[in-house]
């Protein structure tokens, strides 16, 4: 998404979340804009310097509209500002461990590792390291055991980084999207499926 596309998209999301919330309780005050002030260029540059890479286009243009976001879908209460973005393994060690476990389980299934374990049951299992989750960047701060992530090692021809949503309660592993923009569209559609009521349907 370009900057002008983010602006329209996010204002629509803000208005729809406010309408859904007040349909449940008309006495609630308006939510207003769910975002924040734009991230200044020096803050974005500082994030890129910390990550050692230029940000993917859709995430950079998002930060140029709002430095963070409230209620990205139903299970992420706060997207981090640029200053709060960092490696998953440092920010949320237990989520990093869970994702590494999921990846190891998938590899074990593919390689039929159970046979190897039977043959080498007395040997100490080697610690598994995931290149993907070791480099993953956490872009959400607060949520219902749900994290939004970017993978700087999985880059498309358009320069976009793969993006993931992981909910530890979901019973399945992380969900991959081709870009941050695609991830945010999916979160928006999830909100609409659960909460949004078209005009005139309040109370139905």
Considering the chains and any ligands shown, give keywords for the structure.
three-stranded antiparallel beta sheet; five-stranded antiparallel beta sheet; globular; 204 residues; alpha+beta; single chain
Helices and strands, with pairings:
Elements: H1 3-24, H2 41-51, H3 57-63, E1 69-70, E2 76-79, E3 86-87, H4 88-91, H5 93-111, H6 113-119, H7 131-135, E4 137-138, E5 140-143, E6 146-155, E7 161-167, E8 175-177, H8 180-194
Describe what this molecule looks like in 3D.
With 204 residues, this protein is an alpha+beta fold. Helices cover 44% and strands 17% of the residues. A 5-stranded antiparallel beta sheet has the order 3-4-6-7-8. Residues 199-204 have low confidence and may be disordered.
Question: How large is the radius of gyration?
Answer: 19 Å
Q: Which strand order do you get reading across the main beta sheet?
A: 3-4-6-7-8
Uncertain segments are 199-204
pLDDT averaged over residues: 88
DSSP strand tally: 8
Summarize the structure.
The chain has 204 residues and is of the alpha+beta class. It has eight helices and eight strands. A hairpin with a 5-residue loop joins β6 and β7 (161-167).
């Amino acid at each position: 998404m370009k900057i002008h596309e983010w602006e329209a998209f996010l204002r629509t999301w803000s208005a729809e979340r406010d309408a859904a919330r007040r349909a449940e309780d008309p006495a609630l005050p308006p939510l207003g804009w769910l975002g924040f002030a734009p991230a200044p260029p020096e803050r974005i540059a500082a994030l890129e310097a910390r990550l050692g890479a230029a940000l993917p286009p859709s995430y950079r243009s998002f930060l140029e509209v709002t430095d963070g976001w409230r209620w990205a879908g139903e299970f992420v209460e706060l997207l981090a500002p640029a200053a709060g973005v960092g490696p998953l393994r440092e920010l949320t060690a237990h989520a990093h461990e869970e994702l590494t476990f999921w990846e190891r389980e998938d590899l074990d299934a593919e390689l039929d590792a159970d046979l190897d374990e039977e043959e080498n049951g007395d040997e100490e299992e080697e610690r598994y390291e995931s290149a993907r989750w070791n480099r993953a960047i956490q872009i959400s701060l607060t949520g219902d055991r749900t994290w939004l992530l970017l993978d700087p090692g999985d880059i498309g021809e358009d320069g976009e980084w793969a993006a993931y949503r992981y909910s530890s309660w979901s019973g399945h592993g992380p969900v991959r999207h081709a870009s941050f923009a695609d991830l945010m569209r999916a979160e928006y559609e999830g909100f609409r499926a659960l909460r949004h009521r078209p005009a005139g349907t309040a109370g139905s």
